[in-house]
Design a protein that fits this description.
Order of helices and strands: HHHHHHHHH
Distance between the termini: 29 Å
Strand content: under 5%
Structural class: mainly alpha
Mean pLDDT: 76
Shape: elongated
Low-confidence stretches: 174-179
Radius of gyration: 18 Å
């Protein structure tokens, strides 16, 4: 956890301990409208991507879904499937995923035929291991329906996320294919 994030948590804990006396009226109204109480432990355990911007998080979601599809894509000769994949995540990202060995991508062939953005969101939800109180917020961040359940082994979900983060790191901060 970064020093800035630790400082933010200390400030939040201090404000929380004071029963919100230091909160502005706007912050108190926002807290009152909250879906459910959010504990500081839930916030502390949230993955870093929860705080990312929409475009950056969407890119991670797509690449996570694509990482789960990479094994299937490696074995296909259907040019249309590969073209759609390249259109969705970009050719450099597709090339990077296809270059990964099978041992670095999960074997989710039965799920990989669907929408990679929904697949990626469900994988990140499974990987995040969020509490029941936090799940609705995380689903909204990932543009998942309220009923979307992860149904993935957390280890496979984590493998897909790590592969996606590796591709992001390899490509740098390139955003040429963001929607």
């Amino acid at each position: 956890m970064s020093a800035a994030r630790i400082a933010l948590w200390r400030t939040a804990e201090a404000m929380s301990a004071g029963q919100g006396a230091a909160l502005s009226p706007r912050a108190r109204r926002f807290a009152a409208r909250s879906l459910s109480p959010q504990s500081l432990d839930d916030l502390r355990q949230a993955p870093d991507w929860v705080g990312w911007g929409d475009a950056e998080r969407t890119r991670l979601v797509r690449l996570t879904g694509a990482a789960a599809s990479a094994r299937r894509w490696r074995r296909t000769i259907d040019g249309e499937v590969l073209r759609q994949a390249a259109d969705s995540i970009g050719e450099p990202a597709l090339d990077a995923l296809l270059a990964l060995p099978d041992m670095l991508t999960p074997d989710l062939a039965s799920e990989a035929a669907g929408d990679i953005e929904q697949l990626g969101g469900r994988l990140l939800l499974a990987d995040a291991g969020v509490s029941a109180a936090s799940a609705p917020r995380v689903r909204r961040l990932l543009n998942l329906s309220p009923s979307a359940a992860p149904f993935f082994d957390p280890a496979a979900a984590s493998m897909a996320r790590r592969a996606a983060e590796g591709v992001l790191a390899q490509l740098g901060s390139s955003t040429e294919t963001e929607a």
